[in-house]
Amino acid sequence: MNQVWNIARKELSDGLRNRWLLAISLLFAVLAVGIAWLGAAASGQVGFTSIPATIASLASLATFLMPLIALLLAYDAIVGEDEGGTLMLLLTYPLGRGEILLGKFVGHGLILALAVLIGFGGAALAIALLVEDIELGLLLWAFGRFMVSSTLLGWVFLALAYVLSGKVNEKSSAAGLALGIWFLFVLVFDLVLLALLVLSEGKFSPELLPWLLLLNPTDIYRLINLSGFEGGGAMGVLSLGSDLPVPNAVLWLCLLAWAGASLLLAYGIFRRRLA
């Protein structure tokens, strides 16, 4: 475990030196505070509205941002080391490829977790201090669940970035594929489901369709954050999630399974890669 932590510490220090942690934290904090106070500006209302509305808006925003940030953070984790000649050097040390990959995952995962804690946690603190008569228990529960699930979503896309990075031989190819993965899960997947609904006039296997949401980690993430609030029903393709006969805990397990399976796949690809 010492070797894993040494690699993780190196990735964390690189993130601090490159200002990744600072930039992501500031981005999250500014956007979260802005959404909390200006989210209802389109309807002519300025100021904090409610915790459920704030979490729903933040979850929609994080669905776009967290995968993109995670992919940008880790798309060159393996191929970048290979191009720079440091991968061959790393493999001369008594380090297994699994330890190298796990160390990178821990380091990058800590960067994301700290950024979420500082950025969104700072926004929650601002709400607690500035909003009168706020329900602190509900605020802590809602933001706590939101921050943990956002971190898990980031970890899923970190692992997917390692899959891409281990598969290609050039950083430019990894960057292009990373953007493709982002488009697939964040934009294209739900559009395909909507197209199935429209073209089949609602007759496409209504029992199967809700389960297809579990094939997309971003949909699982949104279902986690939209459930548990009175009147917090999902819209669009996510409304299918209300037909899923599974408790919220299963959605959490599915998100964890996505991260674990993607990391195992990345390890299998990395193990077969020639340095």
How many structural units, i.e. domains?
Answer: 1
Rounded to the nearest angstrom, the radius of gyration is 20 Å
H/E element order: HHHHHHHHHHH
So how many helices? 11
Give the rounded overall mean pLDDT.
86
- The computed structural class is mainly alpha
Distance between the termini: 23 Å
Shape: globular
Assign a percent range to the helix content: over 70%
The proportion of residues in beta strands is under 5%
**Main beta sheet, described?**
none
Q: Point out poorly predicted stretches.
A: none
**Structure summary, number of beta strands:** 0
Organism: Stutzerimonas nitrititolerans
Keywords: Membrane, Transmembrane, Transmembrane helix
GO molecular function: ABC-type transporter activity
Protein name: ABC transporter permease
Structure, briefly:
It comes from Stutzerimonas nitrititolerans. This protein is mainly α. It contains 11 helices and no strands.
Describe the 3D structure.
The protein has 275 residues and is mainly α. The chain contains eleven helices and no strands. The longest helix is centred in the middle third of the chain and has 34 residues. Keywords: Membrane, Transmembrane, Transmembrane helix.
What's the structural blueprint in terms of helices and strands?
Blueprint: H1 2-17, H2 20-38, H3 51-74, H4 79-84, H5 86-92, H6 97-130, H7 136-167, H8 171-199, H9 209-212, H10 217-226, H11 248-272
Helix pairs in contact: 1-6, 2-3, 2-6, 3-7, 3-8, 3-10, 6-7, 7-8, 7-10, 7-11, 10-11
Characteristics:
mainly alpha
